[in-house]
Amino acid sequence: MPRKPSYDREDLIERARDLFWQRGWAGTSLKDLEASLKMKPGSFYAAFGSKDALFELALDRYAADGSERMKTLARNEGPLPALQKFPRMVISNDTAPAKACMLSKTLLELQAHRHPLAQKANAHLLKMEQMFAELFAQAQAAGDISTDHDPRSLARRYQSDVLGLRVSAEREGVDAAAIAGEIADGLARL
């Protein structure tokens, strides 16, 4: 009878996510993964099949965590305050391996090679954009913002602003908190 694995699969996916988020797909070797996860090659392949399969799990985890944070914020604060607070929240996470978005980093890194993981990252970004559009529509229904704007257009612009903010947060000498404040102020004027 095969032995039960002595590792926590969810913990391994989180650790791999952080390594991929920091270094990217190409910058993370199998040896890096084996060392970080403390797994031998045979155990790694038995658990995950391939580097690509583990990267996909890491992308899914990253997207699910981000989506859940935003949904929780919206439940607790309401749609417009959540949209206003989210930019500051994503750049103030001091435990994150990088300030830039893992999904956008993946898309930029792998899209030129037509890698299927770039399509996966793009699909997650589209889902996030849809969630933002739903929050803008809810804010309109609550009377918090004008109905003169298309929620999908607002969501596209918002996502673009947040992704740009996250890149800016990686740069030295950029006051990312001020930019996050400007995004929030802009939403208050809608």
The biggest beta sheet is recorded as: none
CATH topology of one domain: Tetracycline Repressor, domain 2
Strand content: under 5%
Rg from Cα? 19 Å
Poorly predicted residue ranges:
none
The average pLDDT score comes to 96
What is the top-level CATH class of one domain? Mainly Alpha
Total of helices: 9
Tell me, briefly, the overall form.
Answer: elongated
Order of helices and strands: HHHHHHHHH
CATH architecture of one domain: Orthogonal Bundle
**Helix proportion of residues, in percent?**
over 70%
Class by SSE composition: mainly alpha
Distance between the termini: 63 Å
Number of strands: 0
Would you write up a description of this structure?
- With about 190 residues, this protein is mainly α.
- It has a domain at about 60-190: Tetracycline Repressor, domain 2 (Orthogonal Bundle).
- About 70% of the residues lie in helices and about 0% in strands.
- It has 9 helices and no strands.
- It has helices spanning about 10-25, 30-35, 40-50, 50-75, 80-90, 100-110, 115-140, 150-170, 175-190.
- It is elongated.
- The N and C termini lie far apart (about 65 Å).
- The model has no long low-confidence stretch (mean pLDDT about 95).
- Keywords: DNA-binding, Transcription, Transcription regulation.
- InterPro entries: Homeodomain-like_sf, HTH_TetR, Tet_transcr_reg_TetR-rel_C_sf, TetR_C.
